[in-house]
Design brief:
By secondary structure, the chain is of the alpha/beta class. The chain is about 45% helix and about 5% strand. The protein is built from 18 helices and eight strands. A six-stranded mixed β-sheet has the order 5-4-3-6-8-7, sandwiched between helices. β3, α4 and β4 form a beta-alpha-beta unit. α9 crosses α13. The longest helix has 25 residues. The chain is globular. The two termini are about 50 Å apart. The structure holds zinc ion (ZN) (2 copies). One zinc ion binds next to α17.
């Protein structure tokens, strides 16, 4: 099964250029020649998406493009003239999304798209230990793709996540509620003024891979190395990636972030989320739109396309995509929960072609149910994923069980992680070397609190590690539990954690002076 990733045409990671996919597409073109297209009933069918749905080349193109515009039109979330940042990973689905936007904005399109796009790509070469030359090569390849679109684009080395401000994880104001009529009014206005008041796509910026400091690459690698399991490492990478994209959107003036998750990808993500204890966040993780970042809304317009449809489209209309290895490339199925779920879904899909659509339809139902429940905004949010905290729960829950088992095995484990923090950290010159006399002071009361930025060693960091968990949702707390130390987390996360801890400490200190009115929901 070693070559599974490279050659499974049903894998959401498979690129259309791979040998077997190419063969499959060629075979289909050949096999179905005798059939007629179900749409125009004239041209010979070129491909079969589902049993009975045979399309000719042109009708398939219309169907594919129409679906993209329909999903945006139906959800009425992207306003005319709005700046939208497309997150393109180089994979087939996000590259196909980029093509859909190009098609939709072109002059000859009927029902033209009316937003102003930009493209962002995160170079994660550091996470998989690529050399600078390898990274430059990938970036050059993608740059050519982006340049051809004429859209402005941003090449972001993942190392940039280390320089993010704490505001990324602070709760941001949600955009003022737009009444339902606002969308129609905005469209009417756009049509009246012929779109002349709205920003035009700028000249594409020439951004080569920005120079990355070697120390930053080392710090990032140290952070990832401190995560003991692949499952947690993938989760952490997901989180960091999203923070970097949201920050870029914010600083460059984009208000929407478009993600290229296909319905196959989302079906895997949905089951993965459940396995990872992210049940409460399912709707946000997989829905069409996601407003956890407040002013920047994440949008998933590719969620109606299966990986197969995308592969056909990309093949038939030569959409370029770039094969980029990720942390789980060339790993076995059982290497992580994400990988295992993916192989489970894709294998099941082989024998039961409605697997993905069944899971996907479930996700749509979940969404409405969850939306109704989550009414209270401005509540406490998870420090990492920014979803509302799901940890204020009844006693018989997985979260409480984890807490109890933590308490029972606590003393031993914590000592273990304290030993970990005592180790010198070559990549972090700013953290002073731990001093021996400090640790000996019992209970850590005398020495800890004041030196918030690593003044003291184990005794100060112990409450920090345990305290961090109170700021996290159930699933993110599990991710952090799989880290040998939290000290390698980027500074913006640690600073925000300290700020929140100080605030809750203060709240505790003045609590006895406050009137207890009973409805202070935590
Ligand atoms: Zn046709
Ligand atoms: Zn979380």
């Amino acid at each position: 099964m070693e070559n599974h990733r490279e050659h499974n045409p049903r894998s959401p990671h498979c690129h259309h250029q791979c040998h077997s996919c190419f063969n499959m597409a060629a075979l289909l073109l050949f096999v179905s020649v005798s059939k007629k297209c179900v749409k125009c009933k004239e041209a010979p069918a070129a491909l079969v998406i589902r049993a009975g749905d045979a399309y000719c080349r042109l009708c398939f193109k219309d169907f594919f493009i129409h679906k993209f515009k329909a999903v945006l039109g139906k959800n009425r979330i992207i306003f005319p003239g709005e700046k939208v940042l497309l997150a393109v990973s180089g994979g087939p689905s996000s590259c196909s999304m980029l093509r859909q936007v190009q098609e939709g904005l072109s002059e000859k399109a009927n029902k033209k798209l009316r937003f102003v796009p930009g493209v962002a790509f995160i170079d994660e070469g550091a996470a998989i230990g690529q050399s600078v030359e390898e990274r430059q090569r990938t970036v050059a390849e993608l740059q050519a793709v982006f340049q051809a679109t004429g859209f402005p684009f941003y090449i972001l080395p993942l190392e940039q996540v280390l320089d993010l401000p704490a505001s990324v994880v602070a709760t941001n104001p949600s955009p003022s509620e737009q009444p339902a009529s606002a969308y129609k009014a905005a469209v009417d206005h756009f049509v009246e003024t012929d779109g002349s008041n709205f920003p035009r796509p700028q000249e594409p910026k020439k951004t080569l891979l920005p120079r990355v400091q070697e120390s930053h690459t080392l710090m990032l690698q140290q952070l990832l190395a401190s995560v003991k399991t692949l499952t947690a490492r993938e989760e952490l990478l997901n989180t960091l990636r999203q923070h970097l994209l949201v920050h870029t959107a914010r600083t460059e003036g984009y208000s929407k972030l478009m993600l290229g998750d296909s319905c196959t990808r989302l079906a895997v993500k949905l089951l993965t989320s459940i396995s990872l204890g992210r049940g409460a966040q399912l709707a946000q993780d997989t829905g069409f739109s996601d407003s956890r970042y407040g002013d920047i809304i994440l949008v998933r317009p590719m969620r109606d396309y299966s990986a197969k449809e995308v592969a056909y489209y990309n093949h038939l209309f030569t959409v370029p995509s770039v094969v980029i290895p990720s942390v789980d490339t060339k790993t076995v199925d059982k290497a992580s929960i994400q990988r295992l779920t993916e192989s489970f879904v894709t294998k099941l899909q082989t024998d039961f072609p409605s697997t993905v659509s069944t899971i996907y339809r479930t996700s749509e139902k979940l969404q409405t149910a969850c939306r109704k429940r989550s009414g209270a905004d401005g509540c406490d949010r998870c420090l990492l994923c920014l979803c509302s905290l799901d940890t204020a729960v009844e006693e018989p829950s997985a979260f409480q069980a984890t807490l109890i088992s933590d308490q029972l095995s606590g003393s031993k484990c914590l000592r273990g992680s304290a030993a970990e923090t005592l180790r010198p950290e070559p990549g972090r010159p700013e953290s002073p070397p731990p001093t021996a006399q400090c640790c000996s002071s019992a209970e850590g009361r005398g020495c800890g609190r004041a030196g918030s930025d690593g003044g003291c060693c184990s005794s100060a960091k112990l409450p920090e590690t345990t305290g961090l968990k109170s700021l996290l949702c159930y699933s993110c707390a599990l991710t952090v539990r799989d880290m040998s130390t939290v000290n390698h987390l980027p500074q913006y996360i640690l600073s925000e954690a300290q700020r929140r801890q100080r605030r809750s400490q203060m709240r505790e200190e003045i609590s006895e002076f406050l009137l207890d009115d009973g409805d202070e929901g935590n």
